[in-house]
Design goal:
L-fuculose-1-phosphate Aldolase; eight-stranded mixed sheet; 6 helices; 8 strands; 38% helix
Length: 211
């Protein structure tokens, strides 16, 4: 492994560890991939490993047009969400990395009926809207088709909620995909806290304070 592939692999491994440290995933959940710059190949995390256990040597190489796995480290297999990642790259030429994670606050909104409200000016300016992709069984061709339709329908959106499942973020590189997921989780946490503060019957600030 050398050149662009080595740099891409190092970035994926680093942001996988950051995603686990940020609690964007739990256990062995979540997966990440990144396009090897200047090629039609991508690196993707294996199934069964926690993201904090991912190293450059444990990443698999996949041909994007055909979906053929070109290199598999011994004892490992590609993420079960491989088809979902492929759907993003095939639909969106600008995609350089994809992160699928299960951050608790954002995932809670993905499981609830109300849309995730963008209550801060930062969230509004950065996201504009956060599309909710419909449910299909994880790793299925049906889910890949839903993701393909979603990324095509919302070409200017980089963060998506996946109903009953988690989140999907797309970036030009691994860092950007991670940052979108990080901001999405922070936005969801702020929105939930805000809803608790303004709900009917919630205690408000004291009205008569001593001078």
């Amino acid at each position: 492994m050398r050149g662009g592939e080595a740099r891409t692999a190092a970035a994926v491994a680093a942001y996988c560890r950051k995603a686990q440290a940020r609690d964007l995933v739990g256990g062995a959940g979540g997966n990440m991939s990144a396009r090897i710059l200047g090629t039609d190949r991508m690196l993707i995390t294996p199934t069964g490993l926690a993201l904090e256990e991912v190293t450059p040597a444990r990443l698999l190489v996949v041909d994007i047009p055909s979906g053929r796995v070109l290199r598999v480290p011994r004892g490992l297999a590609p993420s079960k969400e491989l088809t979902t990642h492929l759907a993003v790259y095939r639909t969106r030429e600008s995609a350089g990395a994809v992160l699928h994670a299960h951050p608790p606050f954002a995932t809670a909104y993905a499981c609830a009926e109300p849309a995730l409200p963008l209550i801060t000016i930062t969230a509004e300016e950065m996201f504009h809207e956060i599309p909710l992709l419909e449910y299909a069984f994880p790793g299925s061709e049906a889910l890949a088709a839903i993701v393909a339709r979603g990324t095509a329908k919302f070409p200017e959106r980089w963060a998506f909620l996946m109903r009953r499942h988690g989140v999907l973020t797309v970036g030009t590189d691994a860092r950007e995909a991670y940052l979108w997921a990080d901001l999405l989780e922070s936005t969801a946490k702020t929105s939930l806290l805000h809803s608790l503060l303004v709900r009917p019957g919630a205690a408000g600030p004291p009205r008569d304070l001593p001078a």
